[in-house]
Amino acid sequence: MLRTGTSRRFLARRVWNSFLDELFPENRPYCKLCRKPMPADAMGGYETQDQMLGHGLDSICPFCLQEAEQVKLVNRLKSVRLRHMNPLERSSSHSSEPAIDIRNLPIVCALEYSGFVRTSIRHFKYDGLTALVPWFTSAMIEATETRRVFEHVDGIVHVPTSADRAKKRGYDQAHLLAYAIAKSTRISHIPVLFRSLDAGVFTQSQTAKSKADRSASLQGKFFCKQPELIFGKRILLVDDVVTTGTTMQTCADLILKSGAKSVIGLVIAYVR
Ligand SMILES: [Zn+2]
Predict the structure, then answer these.
(1) What is the 65 CA–ligand 1 centroid distance (Å)?
(2) Which residues surround ligand 1, an ion (CB under 5 A)?
(3) Are 222 and 195 in contact (CB under 8 A)?
(4) Residue 50 phi, psi (nearest 5)
(5) What single string gives the DSSP state of each residue in 140-198?
(6) How far is the CA of 17 from the centre of ligand 1 (A)?
(7) Fewest Cβ atoms nearer than 10 Å: which of 3, 91, 135, 178?
């Protein structure tokens, strides 16, 4: 399945096509990832690449798809300290529950945040490249399946983008991921978390702030509508990336405080 090499003919065609595209740039749609015009015969390779990677990747050129095929699952586990301990979880430490340290939030990170993955996540977050959702979610599902996470999850909650930011972009990236994962795993997506303020107000100063300050500034911004929907449930918390883990931690604390039984995190990648 993996196509590592590229034939001379393929390369020659690429050069020839880019030459033609230089001459007639307006004739072809651009690849949303590398920004190069789509090769004229791109459709020829699409059928199979499509089947391999999911669907909806028609806005990405075959060269980028080839790169996507070569991305390996890293399936790293990051752990973030929690402040809130759930009494429900404490009292029911029996049966087939996974051994989850309730003071920590385990976060499954599917891919390595570098090269192609980093570029595609950026385009997904800021450039409206939502066609990558099936590709991201298939990696995320694969990572969680090896850890048998879905056996211990009753509902999926996503880390929300603030309403004004989502409106500006036209989508909430974590919502899209959670929805797609819910659809393929048949676990219900319960969008109970909301973000009250635009985080953009803080981003300038946020990097300079300490982790504790940052977490305090985030605290008030998330709220849970209809906590009864997640009461007693084991939640999979989905976001695009995890950096310091402060956002995930804040949301997980909120979910547990709302009465959920346990939380496990899931992201595309861990940004170091
Ligand atoms: Zn491309």
Answers:
(1) 7
(2) 31, 33-34, 61, 64
(3) yes
(4) -60, -45
(5) HHHHHHHTTGGGG-SEEEE-PPPHHHHHHHTS-HHHHHHHHHHHHHTPEE---EEE-S-
(6) 13
(7) 91
CA of 124 to the centre of ligand 1 (A): 14
Q: How close is the Cα of 76 to the center of ligand 1, in Å?
A: 27
| 3-class secondary-structure state, position 30 | strand
Tokens 């090269």 belong to: 115
Q: Find out whether 141 and 162 touch, Cβ atoms under 8 Å.
A: no
Q: How far is the CA of 173 from the centre of ligand 1 (A)?
A: 21
CA torsion sign for 19, 23, 26, 28 is negative
CA angle (141 as vertex; 236, 268 as ends), nearest 5: 75
pTM value?
0.74
121: which residues sit within 8 A by CB, 6+ positions away?
A: 113, 136, 240, 241, 268, 269
8-state DSSP, 37: B
- In tens, the pLDDT along 189-234 reads 999 999 876 544 444 444 555 655 555 555 458 999 999 999 999 9
CA of 116 to the centre of ligand 1 (A): 10
Residue with token string 């949301």: 251
Q: Which residues is 37 bridged to in the sheet?
A: 30
